[in-house]
């Protein structure tokens, strides 16, 4: 009887989890659109787009590396610093493309956007 009650509740839990994820996604998209719309020129739009791209690439790169605090602080962060070997957006894009984190179309689009701005 308890198992039936739990099975009955699980779809609602999954539904609420999906709804929470959708709400988080919508909130993130809204923040992105607000930042893009804040600029008054095409140039400011492109600069903001590259900044957003850089933030997204940084998150993807961090997901590839070890997750423990020590490794991130002493091994990963120095690689990503401006003068580190992965300091350049183009190099980070090549890394995540080479590791299969993004596909070719995404890589080419990101490189194009980086080249425009």
Notes on the protein architecture:
α1 runs antiparallel to α2 (42-64), α2 crosses α4 (89-98) and α4 runs antiparallel to α5 (104-116). The chain has 117 residues and is an all-alpha fold. It has 5 helices and no strands. The N and C termini lie far apart (62 Å). It folds into 2 domains: 1-38; 40-117, Up-down Bundle (Four Helix Bundle (Hemerythrin (Met), subunit A)), CATH 1.20.120. It has helices at 2-38, 42-64, 69-80, 89-98, 104-116. The chain is globular, with a radius of gyration of 19 Å. This is Mannitol operon repressor. One of its GO terms (biological process) is negative regulation of DNA-templated transcription. Pfam families: MtlR.
Shape: globular
Low-confidence stretches: none
The CATH topology of the largest domain is given as: Four Helix Bundle (Hemerythrin (Met), subunit A)
Quaternary form = single chain
Query: What's the CATH class of the largest domain, please?
Result: Mainly Alpha
CATH homologous superfamily heading of the largest domain? Nucleotidyltransferases  domain 2
Portion of residues in helices? over 70%
Average pLDDT confidence is 83
Biggest sheet layout: none
Q: Please identify, by name, the CATH architecture of the largest domain.
A: Up-down Bundle
- Structural class by SSE content: mainly alpha
Number of strands: 0
Distance between the termini: 62 Å
Question: Total number of helical segments?
Answer: 5
